[in-house]
Each structure stands twice: as structure tokens, then as C-alpha cells.
Amino acid sequence: MGEIRCRRHASTGFTMIEVLVTLVIIAIGLLGLAALQSRVHQAEFEAYNRAQALVLLDTIVNRINANRATAPCYAITTNGATPYLGVPDAGHASAISCSGYGDASTQQLAVNDLNELDRAVQGTTELVGATAVGAALGARGCISFDPATATYTVAVAWQGIAETSAPSVSCGNNLYGAETRRRVVWATLKIATLL
């Protein structure tokens, strides 16, 4: 009868090693869950910035399309990268003017559009306190014209979080640290000659 009691006592409860193994497994699972949550947060931030940039890109293209007579006035970016709309630093298009295309009212419309787009790219349409939050992180808008193909290229660049491949469009080139953190969305636009 003494043997039976020893067997029953040995098979009841958990040993310290079993408890430690269980804790290690739970800790590894929680660390994996935290890493997953961090990656989801990063992907959400990247998606938010891309969505903001796409809205800005669409707005710029629509403004150019709506004011076809003075479309050349919108082409402020001369070398593919500067000047640009957005972050007010050395490459920023500070003095926007328009002449030689359309009439005085369409020229003024182009200047007003570019000034509004500049504020939109800077994110000043949405504020949290005094901080502009209505655009992608460090957004810059470039509008260039290629006379050989009569094509406008509209691009919005911003700073990404994770490393990816460097974009082929030069808007915001070398302004975000590593080129693999620069993000750009762009569209080409050809103004039709309507009869």
C-alpha cells in the first residue's frame, strides 16, 4: 500500500520544470504578438501616408485638367526635383507666378490653385493644435512638363518608415535620408487639344 501512495503522489501537480517551460512558451508567444503588432502599426502608417499622397496627386491632376488654358503655369518643377510644393525649405517654390498663357483670370486661377495645393501638400488643411497633420510625412509635390512628349508628370513624395527599393521618379530626391525610405506616387497627364 505504501507503493501505491508514492505513485499517486508523483503523478499529481506540476513540477517546477513544467511551469518554467510553460512560461517560456507563453513569453515567446507574447513577444511574437508584440512584434506582429509593431509591424501592423508600421503598415497602417505607410498605408495612411500613401492614401494621403494619392488624394493630393488626384487633386493636383484635377486642378491642371480644369484649367487647361494655363496648364503650363502649373509646371513649376524644372529639373525633375525642384522647386516643389510642400515642405518650406531651400527647394520650396516660394514665389508662384503665371504669365504668357490663357488670360488674366485663368492665370490668377493657376496661381491660386498652386498656393492652395502648396498648403494642402504641407498638410495645413488639418491641424492638431498647431501641428499640420493633413498630408503624408514630409510631403513634396512636383509638377514638371516634358516638351518633347507634351506630357506633364505630377508626383507626390514623402518619407516612408521601412526600407524598400528607391523610386524611379526624382521628386524629393535625396531629401529623406536613405533613398530606400523615399516614397513617390506619380501620374502623367497629356492635355488634349479640344476643337
Textual characterization of the structure:
The strands form two sheets. This protein has a four-stranded antiparallel β-sheet, covered by helices on one side. Strands 2-3 form a two-stranded antiparallel sheet. The chain is elongated, with a radius of gyration of 28 Å. Helix content is 43%, strand content 15%. Helix 2 (16-66) packs antiparallel against helix 4. Strand 4 (140-146) and strand 5 form a beta hairpin. The chain has helices at residues 2-10, 16-66, 71-74, 104-122, and strands at 85-86, 127-128, 131-132, 140-146, 151-159, 182-189. The termini are far apart. It is built from four helices and six strands. It has 195 residues and is an alpha+beta fold. It has one domain (16-189).
What is the CA-based Rg, rounded?
28 Å
The count of strands amounts to 6
Helix content: 40-55%
The assigned structural class equals alpha+beta
> What is the oligomer described by this structure?
single chain
Number of separate domains: 1
Order of helices and strands: HHHEHEEEEE
List unreliable stretches of 5+ residues. none
How many angstroms does the end-to-end distance come to?
109 Å
Largest sheet, spatial ordering of strands: 1-4-5-6
* Whole-number mean pLDDT: 88
User: Quick one: overall form?
Assistant: elongated
Number of helices: 4
Strand content: 15-25%
Largest sheet, if any? 4 strands, antiparallel
